[in-house]
Amino acid sequence: MATATADREQWGSRIGFVLAAAGSAIGLGNIWRFPYITGENGGAAFVVLYLLCIAFICLPYLFAELALGRNSQKNPVGAIAAIKARTPWMLVGALCVLTGVFILSYYGVVAGWAFGYIFKGLVAPATDAGTYFASFIADPWTVIPLMGFFMLFTISIVASGVEQGIERASKVLMPILLVLILVVIFRSVTLPGAGAGLEFYLNPDFSKVDGGVVLAALGQAFFSLSLGMGAMITYGSYLPKSENLLVSGGYVALFDTAIALLAGLMIFPAVFAMGQNPSEGPALVFVILPEVFGAMPLGSFVGAVFFTLLSIAALTSTVSLLEVVVSYFVDETSWSRKKSAWLVGGFTFLVGVPSALSQGGSDFFTNQLQLFGQTGFLNIMDYIWGNVSLALGALLLSIFVSWVWGADAAVRELQQGADGFTGMAVAVWRFFVKYVCPLFIAAILVGKVLGTI
Ligand code: PFF
What we know:
The chain has a single domain (14-450), classed as Hydantoin permease (Orthogonal Bundle).
């Protein structure tokens, strides 16, 4: 069995871990994807389903990833090897690491757009938002350098270490994020006509719910909490045995959910107040919102604030995507943290170039490339890695923890630092990780592959 090395890094404090893990969870998924998926799926009823998925499926699964990480004090490959060395299960760890590289490659592209949009109100306040966005993302000389900048920020944080880099950055960035969100919400809900947006967002109409909506809610919940690719295994591996994983994990889920809900509160009142359509899909944040900002008092300021907060949220997530891969190289090879961060980050940047060119920059990557019913490199990557691979990883990891490692061993790990975790609570958790999680995750996977979501 692999043992933890004495000099392995650790978080400096509970709040440091919670902010870093919440930083991983809170990202484009909360502020870009959650509102548009909510808009496409009918509003409040989707939100209710999302909350149920977080509470009953994602939370028990989150504890499983954290327990696996802290048990071994290793990256996803090492964590599995510590329990089942030299078995095909190690491929699940490898899948986590690969998924980290590939999600980061295209996530960094969208993060770069958000970063560039901070300045949009200054450089092009009056242009038509749809036309502007289309030409912005099609220009290689804009999007590739922006993605590059974003990767540089990400690499420099990860290269500085767990406590000195990731924890320190999260402690500064996360409070700023919250304050900026509150600024935008205040502007949004005080616009005349904001009430219709609140109604759409907060008043559920369950007639719009079908199986596809349930699976979309579950898939979004997994993506949002950074589950299924070992990010929480990795972050959990830097926790001491004295830490209460249930309490800390609970905070992470709580913050992530709160920010997703607040993102809806920023966006829907403004969209309705300005007479826009909430079901515009991925363009909601980059086209509809700039139109909303363009038409409201103080709009270019609010726009700059909004895209700053989106960039901050994305940055703490790209950090965790890179950290999963870097932790693998640091634990399993002789590479230093700095070398791993620069090499993996540089490689990921190159893998991201076709995604950056897939929004009009290159006809081949934009239109000609088609696979699994998706058109364009970025969409194909998101389908394979952000959808199927995360669901597959979550399915295999939940089976690994509850059946291969064994629910009893996982319970013993969770009980370290959480003496009160006994009796009924243990029985409930076991039931959920052994049966409910694998079954529902398998349903998302089948739904994704059959193309219903
Ligand atoms: N949770 C992030 C978001 O909501 O944007 C995305 C993500 C980050 C997914 C890290 C997976 C991951 F490992």
